User: Fold these one by one.
Assistant:
Number 1:
Amino acid sequence: MASTITSPVSADDRVSARSLAARLLSRPEIGSLVGAAVILVFFLIAAPPFRDINNTGTILYQAALIGVMTVPVSLLMIGGEFDLSAGVAVTTSGLTAGLIAYQLSLNVWVGVVIALALSLTIGAFNGWLLMRTGLPSFLVTLGTFFILQGLNIAVTRLTSGAVASNSISDMDGFSTAKAVFASEFKVGGVTIKIIVVWWIAFVAIAAWMLLRTQIGNWIFAVGGDAAAARAVGVPVKKVKIGLFMAVGFFAWFTGMQLLFVQNGVVQSGEGVGKEFLYIIAAVVGGCLLTGGYGSVIGGAIGALIFSMVQLGVVYAGWNPDWFRAFLGAMLLLATIVNLVVKKQAEAR
Amino acid sequence: MTTTRSFDSDAVTGPTSPIVELRDIGKSYGNIDALRGVSLSVRQGEITCVLGDNGAGKSTLIKIIAGLHDYTSGTMVVNGEERHFSSPRESLNSGIATVYQDLALAPLMSVWRNFFLGNEITRGPFRQLEAARMKRIASEELTKMGISIPNLEQPVGKLSGGQRQCVAIARAIHFGAKVLILDEPTAALGVNQSGVVLKYIVRARDAGIGVIFITHNPHHAYLVGNHFVVLKLGRVALDTHRSDITLEQLTTEMAGGSELEALSHELRDANPEAVVDQGITRPVDTTADNEGEREGP
């Protein structure tokens, strides 16, 4: 409706452009960026192999293994939920593709597509059950976590007679699928795994979607205040179910990488505990556990921090037993840094 | 004060015919009648104040108009048609916007994102946000309505309560509300903040919107209202035009009317000394012959 009372007044003259520094500091990923820089410098000094350019590929690969799943987990967290079944869902997807292709003697790609359908269904089921019951996502996805963990082992043993899926490396379609999900190439002497490229592409697309599209606006809204979002016509249930399905999609992708990088064998006990790594990466990257705030790029930086610390400890020649303790300390530090930075940014 | 302006040509009804009219509306929850025989009409360019104590039926009344509850007796006529709303969407689509006390804004999202939430301007198959355009429109709309928010990127949670109310109201108006229901917009605000919101309500009226202003503050109501309806125990206790009532009468009516008078007599008879002699020891003797029950054994 056009309002007819006054002519448009020029912008308020008290408004001054915010400084670049202030705008930078108000970004959710700034804390993780500072943390990543500190850790990078630290290990460059403390661990000589860290300086070797050839190891950059390995560090990026480790980051991508966590980072691909951190993309949807960050989005889901911004949307106000989290998914404890994300770690084992990856294994479920890999096992499904491997077992179906082997047991039914099908082209590997058929197994890949069926695994995708199953992963999306698991995500949709999580989301639907959550919306239907109104239970917290902690409980619902804890349930799916145990169901999937049990099914992974039970179904694998039932069909293959062992705790791992049968190798499918000599089956039709394996080489093309491996080329898509788990190949590698060299750039100036550095070996780059294809999943690193995929990871960067996923982060770029998801970050753009979150900040620059209507769906992104809705994700922030359903996480920030679901009742408010519903009142202005945002389809809250659809958005949340869609987010769980995104987790399913990326679990499928990570599962395929897992399957094809290991010559077509997936261990059925794999993936337990990974869900926390995704959540840690997202939180370190500035996503608020309560929803409504965060960034996909921050999550990616969180994954990078994780891999730098994991490999840095090894390169420095320290006992890797310390790694977990270090990781926990990192998480606490990151949350505190995020808190401080956010308060400072708000004061400006 | 009571003049109505002419509006956009797209206005469905003329300024004199009511946009929303309730006739003998009743609402029962099981065996409890929350509302009984309430009639109310909302006209464009008029502020109708609904006053009442807690539990008087104010919330039930707005929930019926906002589409959250259906009524059980009487008729509701919107834009000349008899209607039963089954969802807030339906009410919204009929041009009725409700700004609730607890506000429909996401606190961590920026002002402009909140302003356009659910009504984003997008382009392309991926529904890309036209951020620059949305920021410009939000800024213009807010400035036009006399609220200045220096930084539209700032999260809504950092605005003052009054500013937040104003953003919610401005949003409702921008997206085509013809009737605006305000649920106690000044209840949680300080004096200055209330002033800002009241000014803004007047602007909404001047823009040709029919406003239903729910409050239990007769002073706020009298500052802006054209028409006053006082609810008491689910019934209309008073329904009058501004010219027929003074602030004192409204306050009295609102505070309980004759009951308050009785109470004040009772209190005055009880112990007149207590009011003036605050500093001195309690005058025991004068309380001996009152009818107070709280004197103990």
Number 2:
Amino acid sequence: MILVWLIAILMAGGVLAWISGKVNRTLPRWIALAAVLAVFGMMLYLWLSNPIPVLGSAWLIQFDQPWIPQWGISFSLALDGLSLLMLLLTFFLGLLAVLISWREIQNKVAFFHFNLLWVLAGITGVFLTMDLFLFYFFWEVMLIPMYFIIGIWGHENRRYAAYKFFLFTQASGLLMLLAILGLYFIHGSQTGVYTFSYFELLNTTLAPEAARLLMFGFLAAFLVKLPVVPFHSWLPDAHSEAPTAGSVILAGLLLKTGAYGLLRFVLPLFPTATVEFAPWAMLLGVIGIIYGAILAFSQTDLKRLVAYTSVSHMGFVILGVFAFNEWALQGVVMQMITHGLSTGALFIIAGFLYERLHTRDLRQMGGFWTTAPKMGVIALVFVMASLGLPGLGNFIAEFLTLVGSWQANNWLTVFATIGLVMATIYSLRIMQKIFFESYQLEVSFPDLNAREMLITIPMVAMILWLGLYPQPFLETARPSIQEQLQAYTKPVSEREELPLKPENMAHVLESKTEASPAKPEDVKPFPNLQIKTP
Amino acid sequence: MTLTDFQHLMPLLILTFAVLVSMLVIAVGRNHKIMYVITALSFMAAFASLYELRNVGRYTIEPLLVVDGFGVFYIGMMLLTALLISMLSYAYFEQREERKEEFYILLLLATIGACVLVISKHFASLFLGLEILSVALYALIAYLRKRERSDEAGIKYLILAAFSSAFLLFGMALVYASTGTMEFAGIATAIANFTELPHLLLTGFGLMIVGIGFKLSVVPFHMWAPDVYEGAPAPVTAFIATVSKGAVLGVLIRFFMEVDGFRYPTLVLIFTIVAIASMLAGNLLALLQRNVKRILAYSSIAHLGYLLVAFLAGNQMGVQAVTFYLVAYFITTVGAFGVVAMLSDMDRDAEQLEDYRALLWRRPWTAAVFTAMLLSLAGIPLTAGFVGKFYLLAAGINTQLWLLVVMLALNSVIGLFYYIRIVAVMFQQPEGEAEADPRGRLRPSIYVASVGTLAVLALLLVYIGIYPSGLLQIIQSMLATATP
């Protein structure tokens, strides 16, 4: 029931904030803040009070309530380590989003906070739901308010950006809906039970052809949202035109729903089809890493630059997801959290700069280190985090991902590592352009004030914590990662249990080729990949 | 006719009686309010009389009519929609100087025609219903005769509708010539013996499809829709888009289920092409429009294409999906045109995109309702349109109409473009100071009628979007008794 409350509080808070706008201009802000604080507190409580199970089921809490019984749709929510971490991130960034809008948003305050809370509610739903219909439902619910946030409170070119964002995600979402329905009917005709329940649908046996098509349906939605390179063109526009809070939520949370979808749905539902597709997916990831980095380097708009770094960082996510081993997936989960923090922080800094200078043009900035040392230090921390400096969270994430993907595919990992070097180049360029070089603008440039410090200091603390002591996060994510990987690791455990008799050997050989346990170095699950790499 | 026959036709009798009473009342003295009250009350009474028929099973009134769950549900749908439209019309016509009273008689008549259509089981009653509907519509479309566009729309509809009726009649004649009967069931038994449809019969069906297709405004018989939508008064447009089309679709479903037309690949092919063409043409042409009523016209062409997808599924689930979608579509369309009607002024309807600029900041509630309606048309969750579209897709996938289903999904995306464009216009920041609404408000009592209707529609929309189980259950139980 507590899971329902999470969504209900956010939604009710949103409505209340909208209504309260009639009474007072600042009341919506306080209501939004209280709502997000409440759910954040609940989430922290859940995290601290629930010991993560080491063995057995990864699920901590479940909630099930029939919704449209005629179609086998239920209001089914469940929480495991993965969703728990994602929700903590969601509410943490949600809190910051409310705080940074305190000064920035002066227009239609009440409606803004309504949208903000409903986006958060949609994201919460996406991270919790275990019913595919409901998943699609929330997937769309988070879209509309985001469209309004970009379209109403964005910068100059906001309408174009909002349009593009909406159409990309909606089109890809519809393909996912078709795939969900396909899965529903295939499962129904096999078992006679028509249901959208995730746990039931996991047991569907699919013909390879069908599995491939359905997987592409799901992939369409998640790869566009992530985004992976050929489908990324909505992202720079949406990120750079959105208000700061919108950018933070887009980069920090909406992109993560794509990664989460890959982990939660694509991997366990289509174990064979994903293995077939894995080399291509990893290739797309590497292309994304390098392409994003190159484009980031060549931007003059600060927010666009940060947006392209997201493309680059999300390349690591897809690289890791399709490596199918625990190292890589741990890396992916860490990457989701740390990228949410570091990129969110960079967007916040871009917001601070915009508030002072009314420009996002890097060419007009420079020399702020002397006038705003506090901002400089904080920017330095997150720039370093984004280039993967050891001691900060992103390093852990990228290191784990690369270790994992190395076991799956050596060559692509090498190219991915080059992306890290490129990250250094574009990240240092941000510092150089904004805080060093000579003065460009003759404007007063106040340093961070108390409210801004209140926003940024917790983020610095979090990124340091993630970099220095990531163990609690890894522990929390572990059982659910193992559960997602079940379909891939099964042959290994069977192999261990089987006595080494000649008649069992054939099975072992088979499992070597079809799955990717990737423990021994010499097993190359994708032997044909070397040909396809550039 | 026996007494039970009368009982089963009670809704139609009530409406007919109301027409007669209305004419007498006008003869005594013109009073807009009284006419409005009579109309609304008779719609309510007719709807209430359906309560007696809720478990009707299948009752035939030989040889013309059949009252069954399907028919009762559709009649109920028509009556409620007509009621809502009459509520919206009151405010709309009150601020205009034309003679308002006859409008209600025509509205009642058109509704009778629509109700006859959905319970007909014979070509004669089908044609009778269609003509009552059409003739009333000729007058309704040109009702605001002082307006430039009204005459054009009325004449256009008159000529084309008469023409299509001729096609329909000729088709019926050919079907009669080759089967020897005009009853649906008789035709079904007659053609059950054919393995291949004879050419004469096929030609007959083809000509009938022309006639029916015109009423549904599916491509390639859609040319009239944008002009008529634009020229007709907003409530009448809502009526054409909902009741008129829904009734024809209802009789089409009944006929096809009865004769099992889905067995014949030729017919299925024709409808597949029509469905795809309607979806594509409707959506693509809507992209080019700047006039809200025209956009809605093209969007309704596309929506009929969507409906045909589930219709082509040709099974119980398909019929349920069509019915569910129709309910959602009725609510949405009436709501959308209701907003148009409410924003219209004395001289012209609020049809240009310009009229909606920054509406959210001028009239937040109206804009919110319109946004909800548009999002429902686009099929966005939390609205009835989403569940409806989901049902259509499910029905299509269930019978593996992959081409149609993919086209539907693709077209939903194209559709988003123009729905979102209207929403974006409404959400634009006002230029300069937030100006007050330039148009004067109506008198409070009238205003409340429109606002109340719109509020009811919006709430229904969201309620069905969130909790469709109730409606689903009603549809499933009502339709279970009907189709064979």
